[in-house]
Amino acid sequence: MRNIRVCSSLESAAHNESGAFAQASLALRAGLVILPALVFAAWLPSASAQGNPTVEPVTVKTTQPQKVTLQRSTTQPGTVCAFFEAELYAKVGGYLKKLYVDIGDQVEQGQKLAEIDVPELLKACERQEAEVARLQSEKVRCDAAIEVAKARLEQAQAGVKEAEARVAADRSEHQRIQQLVESGAVTQRLRDETLNRLQASEAALSSQKANLNVAQAEIKMAQATAETAQAAEKVGEKQLEELGISIGYATLRAPFRGVVTHRTVDPGDFVQAAQASSGAGRKALFTIAQIDKVRVQVAIPQRDVGLAGVGDKAQFKHDALHGKVLEGAISRLSKSLDPVTRTMMVEVDFPNPDGEMLPGLFGQMTIVLEESSDRLVLPAACIHNAEKGGECHVYVVDAGSKVHQVPVTTGFDDGRQIEITAGLRGNEQVVMGMLGRLSPNQTVKVLR
To answer: Pick from 368, 367, 385, 372: which is nearest to 412 by CA?
Structure first.
């Protein structure tokens, strides 16, 4: 009605105008008013339709839990080391007389590496040999003295027996004459003569017993002298052996089969004995490394220490192997943690018959710490972490395409997939992703 009144007013005003110009102006003004009205009338049905829109279900992608064999492993840098490595020093001092090997040479156990000239030790050895010979002669003389003492002892023992027999005979004779004197058959003078002979034989017996004691003392002294000479001979022989050992140190030999990796001397160099040189000036003459078998040292972090054990599977690779992976197992554990890095050193042995793995090579070692079969796992994108320390959960789509939030308990997590230890049976359809965009009982469209 308002529009009609406006039009009437305009028509009245138009009558006051003259000519065609007035009519055109009237038509233009009427159009400006009618056009907004028509636009508003067209907008009303559209606005009414938008008041009750049709909601499309959210499209999701699902997956099922998988049963797999889980391997918990750790990958750490590893360094190849010689199985055995020995630094050889000089035990005795002198000038290097001969050099038999150079770096890179393969040597066998006991093989000569170098010789040191030790003339003083050689002369000392000759002198000691002469001393041992003298002590051996002294021992022979002492043994002979024992034999002489034994002979004298036997002679003294025989003299004692003879004197005892003489005393017994003279005593018997004296008793017989004493009886005759008492019966008056013989004179007193004959009794005195037998008494004198008895006393003389008793004195001779005492003398023989004294000689026996002297002979026994002489044999003890000869035996003691012989024992002293024998001990001196042994000391001399041990000193000679010691000199022989020192002379043996003048020849440096390989302690085991390996490769000469370092050499620091040349023929004619003066070599100091290791114990005579200071720590700063002391240097190894040779370094021998056994590389037909090597050990790779790996420091594993504190979190994995409790799971590592001898026999755990290990794989090692480095650039020098050109993509080849070596299979092995942990051979030994240090069973202690470095207080600075909080890591434990483990070693894995590898055969190296071709010498491809050289000491000092650096690579990556993967150690399988734990292996479990028939474990349910889901991709990490399926697991939703609850706020404020609550339970983890997943979104499960039922047969009616409705979403349910299911709490789950998680286990091992390798960054790609997570173990589900409780909450799922294994036949569920679990939504992947969709973090924070789904609500319980929401209807979804599963992407096939």
So the answer is: 372
Question: For residue range 151-197, what is the model confidence (pLDDT) as tens digits?
Answer: 988 888 898 899 889 889 988 888 888 888 888 777 788 888 888 88
- For residue 230, give the nearest of 141, 352, 298 by alpha carbon: 141
Over the range 277-294, which residues count as b (16 or more CB within 10 Å of their CB) and which as e?
eeeeeeebbbbbbbbeeb
- Strand ranges (E), 286-391: 286-301, 313-317, 326-337, 343-351, 362-379
Residue in 282, 262, 264, 263 with CA at minimum distance from that of residue 272: 282
Q: To 10 degrees, what angle do helices 2-15 and 19-50 make?
A: 170
The CA distance from 12 to 29, in Å, is: 13
Predicted confidence (pLDDT) at residue 327 exceeds the cutoff of 90: yes
- Contact 212/160 with Cβ under 8 angstroms? yes
Residues 6+ apart with CB under 8 A from 79: 296, 297, 360, 361, 362
Classify strands 58-60 and 444-446 as parallel, antiparallel or unpaired. Answer: parallel
Return the sign of the alpha-carbon dihedral for residues 147, 149, 154, 159: positive
Q: Which amino acid is at 252?
A: L
Query: Dihedral angle at the C-alpha atoms of 72, 76, 80, 81, nearest 10 degrees?
Result: -90
Helix (H, G, I), strand (E, B) or coil at 271: strand
Residue written as tokens 């890179």?
Answer: 104
